[in-house]
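Deliverable D2.4 — example input (structure tokens):
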């Protein structure tokens, strides 16, 4: 990498909006280029000192559930060419794993997460802010499928979590941050034109 600092692209949107899919698609399309992905989920607070019952009931859709200061500090380290130990979150245990992923800086850093635009200090270090805007019903169905198949959750558990915290927190914290976005991509990955435009923009940074 040259001495030029990295460009940080933040991709936010409600749970199940398609932000992770878009981030992974961009990464795949630009394989071999200097691009890295940082998931905000990796920065969920460590809850290993809490009993499992309490961990399960925690509100994971509130800004306080993240260690945002650590995320900001890690992003600034990467932006300035340094390396970090990226935390790993264990969804089955509802806490941070003991492993970390050594992560080097890249020309383009894609950060994706539900609550990326809530904290002003975090917003300010994102060079481009992208909001993935997907209908509530579609997001819920995607979340249900994902949590049951990949995260060991039950259908009833996913539904009650969605109604108790995910939906109200989305309307309280996530949706209002849409106004900070530079780019809004409706319907996620199915919006080929929007995703292609974002890819073209990233390619211009890589040149």
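Example output (designed residues):
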């Amino acid at each position: 990498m040259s001495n030029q600092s990295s460009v940080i692209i933040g991709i936010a949107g409600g749970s199940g909006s398609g932000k992770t899919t878009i981030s992974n698609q961009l990464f795949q399309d630009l394989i071999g280029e200097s691009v890295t992905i940082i998931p905000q989920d990796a920065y969920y607070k460590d809850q290993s000192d809490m009993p499992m019952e309490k961990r399960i009931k925690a509100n994971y859709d509130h800004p306080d559930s993240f260690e945002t200061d650590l995320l900001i500090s890690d992003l600034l380290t990467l932006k300035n060419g340094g390396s970090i130990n990226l935390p790993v979150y264990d969804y089955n245990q509802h806490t941070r794993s003991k492993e970390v992923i050594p992560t080097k800086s890249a020309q383009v850093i894609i950060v994706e997460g539900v609550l990326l635009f809530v904290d002003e200090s975090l917003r300010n270090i994102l060079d481009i802010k992208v909001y993935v805007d997907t209908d509530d019903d579609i997001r819920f169905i995607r979340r249900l499928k994902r949590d049951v198949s990949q995260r060991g959750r039950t259908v009833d558990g996913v539904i009650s979590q969605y109604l108790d915290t995910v939906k109200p927190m989305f309307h309280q914290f996530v949706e209002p941050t849409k106004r900070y976005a530079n780019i809004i991509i409706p319907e996620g990955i199915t919006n080929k034109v929007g995703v292609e435009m974002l890819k073209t923009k990233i390619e211009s940074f890589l040149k």
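The two ends are 12 Å apart (CA to CA).
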